[in-house]
């Protein structure tokens, strides 16, 4: 994230240092999306008041988001987006139907439940739950963990509605967490 105190209306790209012209709305203190006019990097910017009418423009790379896959005519997956839906390497092995059939949970809470199963399964220190064990489980988890660096900085797409829990949210956290120095 970069910040600068400016008298002109611009936001500096942290990738290529290009000064992007800004509209007056940049004075608002919430993040707004911007694509760099030179390198095309997906950015966010906001104005932040400092003192006595002075302000600075803060710029950062736009954090990756979850995208909902669609079957509507003409819909295309956005650039910089990877599908993590089933079937596929990153699909959640825990299904809503299996959770309901095994009577672990009711239909109302099944989606949140399978996302928590996925989170627990992917974590290094399980919370006392062993939902899926054995060689197949270990092999599948290793393949997902091996692929996490390739998801870093990418938007992730799944079929889950955006207002519901999704394993893609867990993958976004894991792929984009801070790397210890």
Q: Can you give a write-up of this model?
A:
- There is one protein chain.
- The protein has 181 residues and is α/β, with parallel strands linked by helices.
- It has helices at residues 96-101, 110-122, 135-151, 167-176, and strands at residues 2-5, 10-12, 19-21, 32-35, 42-49, 55-61, 66-68, 81-83, 155-158.
- The strands form 3 sheets. A 4-stranded antiparallel sheet has the order 1-6-5-4, with no helix packed on it. Strands 7-9-8 form a 3-stranded parallel sheet, covered by helices on one side. Strands 2-3 form a two-stranded antiparallel sheet.
- A hairpin with a 6-residue loop joins strand 4 and strand 5.
- Helix 3 packs across helix 4.
- The protein is elongated.
- Residues 3-7 have low confidence and may be disordered.
Percent helix: 25-40%
What is the oligomeric state here?
Answer: single chain
What's the overall geometry?
elongated
Distance between the termini: 18 Å
Biggest sheet, spatial arrangement of strands: 1-6-5-4
Order of helices and strands: EEEEEEEEHHHEH
Q: Tell me the total number of β-strands.
A: 9
Protein structure class: alpha/beta
Counting H and I runs of at least 4 residues, what is the number of helices? 4
Radius of gyration: 21 Å
Uncertain runs with pLDDT below 50, 5 residues or more? Answer: 3-7
Share in β-strands: 15-25%
Compute the average pLDDT.
83
Main sheet characteristics:
4 strands, antiparallel
